[in-house]
Amino acid sequence: GPEGRDDLRIEVPPPVDVQVSVLDVETGRVADVSRVTWMPAPPEGTSSGRLHVVEREPGSDRFHLRVPEGSIQLWVNDPTHSRVLETFAVREGTQLTVETRAVASATVELRDGQVTIPWPEIVDVGVRPVDGTGEARSSGRTRGRRWVEVDEPGRYRLAIPDVAGFLPGQLVEVDFVKGERREVVVPLVRAR
Description:
With 192 residues, the chain is mainly β. The protein has strands at residues 15-24, 35-40, 52-55, 63-68, 70-76, 84-90, 95-100, 104-112, 115-117, 126-129, 136-142, 145-150, 154-159, 171-176, 180-187. 0% of the residues lie in helices and 49% in strands. The strands form 4 sheets. Strands 8, 9, 11, 12 and 15 form a 5-stranded mixed sheet that branches.
């Protein structure tokens, strides 16, 4: 009716403590990632929810999560390691292990002097190995910059897209190192 329902009951599962270990699948050791992200697993047919970021406690090799009992989605999303998304059923005392691997990646920023120039829409970073057979594995956009991850460490040539008002056709060589995200700043040259 117009007054609303008074028989509706909202029940939230009790919180439980969960420990998460993130291991490097290649070495079997704790991966050097500083945070994980989680949210309660959304109901079927939905895909959103509030994300919670948890930093690794100083001196610990695990992450401590306080989550509602039930199912959670857990992300490892670190610039130096492969991205992982898994769903887990959790209850008090659950100990989870997530595997990831170190990757070689770079963030590319275009600049005019000290001003960051937004990356052109829909344009990706052109990536070619200088030596070897590696290639781009994935890429994305972050804060007006582009990032790219390669499948093998080494030296790569990045093709910078044409930007209106600046000279076209720039190529930049970058050494990609496994377990590192390189920050590459490309100074653009104004067209006369």
